[in-house]
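pipeline stage [seq->struct] | target=DUF2200 family protein | organism=Kordia periserrulae | residues=122
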Amino acid sequence: MKVTDAHNERIANMKFSSVYPHYVTKVEKKGRTKEELHQVITWLTGFDEAKLQEFIGNEATFKEFFAKANLNPNAHLIKGVICGYRIEEIDNELTRKTRYLDKLVDELAKGRTMEKILRSAI
């Protein structure tokens, strides 16, 4: 699928705090933990627990969330299709970062090992 400007704008303005509970539900339904989810988010963004809670409490948008993130240098190794979009083909940087996070959450929920999710065995 092709990412449109309207799609990019919608993602930029979406609140992280509105999506976060869905991430928690998704991983917990599959037997993973909130702590593992936070480990994945921390790996991607560099945010500690306090900073993550601050973004949730302040209802930060994904634009604000990723503007303050220190993206992991291995994030470019996250590849594949998520929500119908091939991550490697997404031109918009913010949308790509958001899809990186979606992909990591999906991999966690699907039972991949943490070593593979965090791209440490590559």
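stage status: PASS
auto-comment: Residues 77 and 119 are 7 Å apart (CA to CA). The chain has a mean pLDDT of 94.
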